[in-house]
Amino acid sequence: MATGYGDLLRTRYAARLLVGTLVGRLPNATAALAVVLFVRAEGGSYALAGGLSAVYGVGNAIGQPLLGRAVDRFGQPRVMLPAAVLSALGMVLFALTGIGSLPLAYAAMLIAGGFTPPLEGGLRALWPGVLGRQDRVHAAYALDAVAQEVMFSVGPLLVTLLVAARSESAALLIVNVLGVAGALSVVLSPPSRRWRSAPREAHWLGALRSPGLLVLLASFLFIGIALGSIAVTAVAYADRHGGGMVSSYLLSALGAGALIGGVVYGARPWAGPAEVRLRLLVAALAVGYLPLTLVPGVPGMTALALLSGVFLAPALACAFVVIDHHAPRGTVTEAFSWLVTTFVVGNAAGTAVAGPVIEGGDVAAGFAVPGAAGAVALAVLLAARRFLAPADRPPAAPAPGDVPADRPSGTPASGDVPAENDRNGAVEPGFRTGGQA
């Protein structure tokens, strides 16, 4: 297992791209906590902190697919680096001006969230050209999902340490400087500079004209709801079981489960269509949420949280492959960015739903929300499975520049792997307008 991941990371540029992307996404992973800590240090209320964080999230949800579409049209360096700088400047403005002027504070949050660069989707667009073989690309997707869990665990810890060592404003500034450095590392790499999206058909819906992608996004909206509701209910559970670090135990166990599942899933090749496998993984994920309603003591609940996270990273990694199959030609970064937006919206909705459910019932009712959301996610995939039929057409040829000329020896020739993550090799039928977007 370790040997397989080691070989993957030793591939030229692979480790640089993965690390650069993770560092570049630190501002996004830590924004909610960093904003709350800064606002409280400035004497603001939790309500104000929540409002500012919500504006950041709305900006992020709107900006990701729009920037992803721009990346598909103009390339990664011309979009991602300016976006990273503008996002960081938004946070710098917020850190320097504080909450003395609320309109300015909200505008800064909108800029910071709206210009967050789509590094996540950009990395997944680069993997086929960097790694060559499909089995290695699928393993990279799993490693990507695992690394994401690590980042969302380590990021808040980094903010806490920076606050303790310096100040809340320093934490905001340092994290965003790191974010720009990470984005810079990615866009200066040869694979990023060479990458070009395949020609695209002109259509205002962009990636959303794919019925299969819409089904996938609808399903993962409810998985986002499940995760958001778990975060809120874990806090309510902690309040009833001694408070302190109990909620951290549960959320850390959830992340650890996802990490274990992702590492195991990515360590072996999988036969059969990814679309079928995704339904099985989402079913397992939904079933894993159900025992949370038992609400045992802290040790038992921590074990159940670990179990409930095991299929999260595998489901995400498989979803990345399905996006490969169903994103219309020339929209790969935008398609991956829509998945990020879906998770942001779903997470916010889950947070909003869980609170009233807990107050109207109890903690067990709160933990029933992720189980119900997981069941709906599976129902969407089953009801609309004809739109997620496995692609049976041959892969498209790579666009010039997508496959590095210095491909490591032993990897396939460029025709073996489409440079763009579009296994359909054509746009969705019915949208041929004769021009390029």
Automatic annotation (TrEMBL):
Segments traversing the membrane: 17-39, 45-67, 79-99, 170-191, 212-237, 249-266, 278-298, 304-323, 335-358, 364-384
Region (Disordered), start-end ranges: 393-437
Pfam families named among the record's database cross-references: MFS_1
Keyword annotations of the record: Membrane, Transmembrane, Transmembrane helix
Biased composition (Low complexity): 399-408
Stored InterPro entries: MFS, MFS_trans_sf
Stretches of the chain forming a coiled coil according to its record: none
Name of the protein described by the UniProt record: MFS transporter
Lineage: Bacteria, Bacillati, Actinomycetota, Actinomycetes, Kitasatosporales
